[in-house]
Structures are given as structure tokens and as C-alpha cells.
């Protein structure tokens, strides 16, 4: 079964997360297939830019708790998006949770409909947004992250835009995307590549400095007793034992 749809229109390659049965959760299989699709797009001289979007009402629910990718694989996927020699633009028309927010932060730009909602739900299942912090911390307002990392609260597209998680939002996401994609199509390919390198240098410094430590932290937390309780409670649709 193919988990990533591929389509091309006027030099823009669209990659679609297509695993609606688990709300496009980041399974080991989906992460691997998306990484391969991005690599193909990066090597294709006919591709000017990549749009990353989704089927269903959820962009991504975060890590697949039944088949999670190794932390190293998620780090590699996020880095691939950032290092891709073509701009990557997220197109969101649904909900984004946990690890899915790492995908948004890794993209060069992100547009969402006003129906989209966002939440860093890691603390509510006993883990932390460790690996996804690699692109998030350099690109997003630190005060906003303090609130939403620590509380797991849900927030809307307007707040996501204000904090830097999104580039723009609109009732019709494609209306918001139109000038962005037009601008990319009008830009010289080599100039886009070099300009993206300027913009991503600080983010890649964070990867070089912190990836090993955050990968180890993620692995440790996911194997903890609190995480086992939190994930079991989530799957059983009940509150975990620590809720007061």
C-alpha cells in the first residue's frame, strides 16, 4: 500500500500523506516512504518546489504509537526536508498534533485553512517534543512554545501564524498558497537553492549540535513507565493515572 501520493503541476511536486486509517500518523513505513519521495523530488531537475499536504481531516496525528519510527529516522526525515535543494511548502486543511508539528516547522513555508488546529500533545502521554524541537526552537516564538509545549493546549491557525509556526492562513488555503507558488515558479532554480541555504543555516546548526542528545532523550522517555501509562490511556480513551 502506498502511503505517499505524488502529483506534478507546473514544476511543483505535491507529496500527499495518505494514511487516513491512522490520521496520517508517523509510522516507520510512512516516514521511510516520505523520505524516499523527498529524495526523488530533490534530484529531479523538473521540480522547482515541493508541496507537502494530506488526505482526510488530519495533516498528521504525530508518532504512530503502534508502529513508531526510531527517533533517528524522524531526525533524518526532518533534516532531509531542511536540506532539500528545493523549497518545501506545507499545505494544511486539518488537524496537526505532536510530531506533525515538526514536519511543519521543517518546511520552508506553511499555509493552513482556518479549520486547522494544532497541539503539542506529548506531555499528556508522558513524553516530550524532543526531536521535533530541532526545527521548532529556531523558528518559533519561545514564549508561545513554553505555553503550548508545557500544557498540551490546542490552538488555532491564527495563533499558529502569530507564533511563526505558519507562514499564512486563510479560509481557502489554496488562495493563500497561490502567490507563494507563483513566486517560486518565477524564481531561478539555483538562486532558490542558495537562498534556502542562507535561511536554513541556523536550523542545521541546531541539528549538528543537539540531534544526538534529543534523540537519546526521546528514546528514554518513550521507554519510561509514565509513557507506557500515557500511551495505554490514550489507546483506551481514558485519562492517565496522573491527571488530578
Describe this structure in words.
A hairpin with a 2-residue loop joins strand 1 and strand 2 (12-17). 49% of the residues lie in helices and 18% in strands. It is globular, with a radius of gyration of 17 Å. The strands form two sheets. It has a six-stranded mixed sheet, sandwiched between helices. The protein contains nine helices and ten strands. The relative contact order is 0.14. The chain has a domain at 4-172: 2-enoyl-CoA Hydratase, Chain A, domain 1 (Alpha-Beta Complex). The chain has helices at residues 28-43, 71-83, 99-106, 133-139, 142-151, 157-162, 173-185, 189-222, 225-236; strands spanning 4-9, 12-17, 49-54, 58-60, 88-92, 95-97, 109-113, 117-119, 154-156, 168-170. Helix 4 (133-139) packs across helix 8 (189-222). It has 244 residues and is of the alpha/beta class.
Level-2 CATH architecture of the domain at 4-172: Alpha-Beta Complex
CATH superfamily of the domain at 4-172: 2-enoyl-CoA Hydratase, Chain A, domain 1
Strand proportion: 15-25%
Number of helices: 9
Helix content, binned percent = 40-55%
* Average pLDDT score: 97
Pfam families: ECH_1 (PF00378)
Family: Belongs to the enoyl-CoA hydratase/isomerase family.
Protein name: Putative enoyl-CoA hydratase
EC number: 4.2.1.17
Brief summary:
The protein is an alpha/beta fold.
Write the layout of secondary structure elements.
Elements: E1 4-9, E2 12-17, H1 28-43, E3 49-54, E4 58-60, H2 71-83, E5 88-92, E6 95-97, H3 99-106, E7 109-113, E8 117-119, H4 133-139, H5 142-151, E9 154-156, H6 157-162, E10 168-170, H7 173-185, H8 189-222, H9 225-236
Parallel strand pairs: 2-3, 3-5, 4-6, 5-7, 6-8, 7-10
Antiparallel strand pairs: 1-2, 8-9
Helix pairs in contact: 1-2, 2-8, 3-4, 4-8
Amino acid at each position: 500500500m502506498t502511503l505517499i501520493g505524488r502529483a506534478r503541476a507546473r514544476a511543483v511536486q505535491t507529496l500527499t500523506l495518505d494514511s487516513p486509517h491512522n490520521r496520517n500518523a508517523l509510522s516507520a513505513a510512512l516516514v521511510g516512504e516520505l523520505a524516499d519521495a523527498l529524495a526523488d523530488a530533490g534530484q529531479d531537475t523538473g521540480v522547482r518546489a515541493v508541496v507537502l499536504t494530506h488526505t482526510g481531516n488530519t495533516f498528521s496525528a504525530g508518532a504512530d504509537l503502534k508502529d513508531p519510527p526510531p527517533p533517528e529516522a524522524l531526525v533524518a526525515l526532518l533534516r532531509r526536508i531542511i536540506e532539500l535543494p528545493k523549497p518545501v511548502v506545507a499545505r494544511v486543511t486539518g488537524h496537526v498534533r505532536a510530531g506533525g508539528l515538526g514536519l511543519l516547522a521543517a518546511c520552508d513555508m506553511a499555509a493552513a485553512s482556518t479549520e486547522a488546529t494544532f497541539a503539542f500533545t506529548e506531555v499528556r502521554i508522558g513524553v516530550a517534543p524532543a526531536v521535533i524541537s530541532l526545527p521548532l526552537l529556531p523558528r518559533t516564538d519561545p514564549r508561545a512554545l513554553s505555553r503550548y509545549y508545557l500544557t498540551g493546549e490546542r490552538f488555532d491557525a491564527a495563533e499558529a501564524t502569530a507564533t511563526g509556526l505558519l507562514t499564512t492562513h486563510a479560509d481557502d488555503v489554496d488562495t493563500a498558497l497561490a502567490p507563494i507558488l507563483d513566486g517560486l515558479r518565477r524564481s531561478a532554480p539555483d538562486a532558490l537553492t542558495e537562498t534556502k541555504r542562507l535561511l536554513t543555516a541556523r536550523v542545521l546548526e541546531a541539528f549538528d549540535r543537539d540531534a544526538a542528545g534529543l534523540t537519546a532523550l526521546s528514546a528514554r522517555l518513550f521507554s519510561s513507565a509514565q509513557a507506557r501509562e500515557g500511551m495505554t490511556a490514550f489507546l483506551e480513551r481514558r485519562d492517565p493515572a496522573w491527571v488530578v
